[in-house]
Amino acid sequence: MGQGELGRTRYQACLTGAEAPKIQPGADRVKPGTFDELIICYYRSPEFLDPCPRTQEVYRGVIERWRAKYGADAWPTWKHATSRP
């Protein structure tokens, strides 16, 4: 769904009182099945959102360093260097 189409859909929803589709920033830049997608899902989960902000900050720092290295990799087929066949 392009930006123009999404805008029209949201506008129509406002006119009719229906619920507008949720906008997910960056969704078009993340490939499904990658660690990037998995990390984004984790950031939206209660497991990440429940701890205090300082804990979230620490977790995010560790995750983002790891994500910079492996984020674009597909996770279903990913094998760690120390994994055994």
Could you give a quick summary of the protein structure above?
The chain has 85 residues and is an all-alpha fold. It is built from 4 helices and no strands.
Give the helix level as a range of percent: 40-55%
Q: Overall 3D geometry?
A: flat
Biggest beta sheet attributes: none
Beta-strand percent range: under 5%
Strand count? 0
Structure, described:
The chain is mainly α. It contains four helices and no strands. Helix 2 packs antiparallel against helix 4. It is flat and about 45 Å long.
Which short descriptors sum up this protein?
single chain; mainly alpha; 85 residues
Q: Helix and strand layout, with pairings?
A:
Layout: H1 3-16, H2 35-43, H3 46-49, H4 53-70
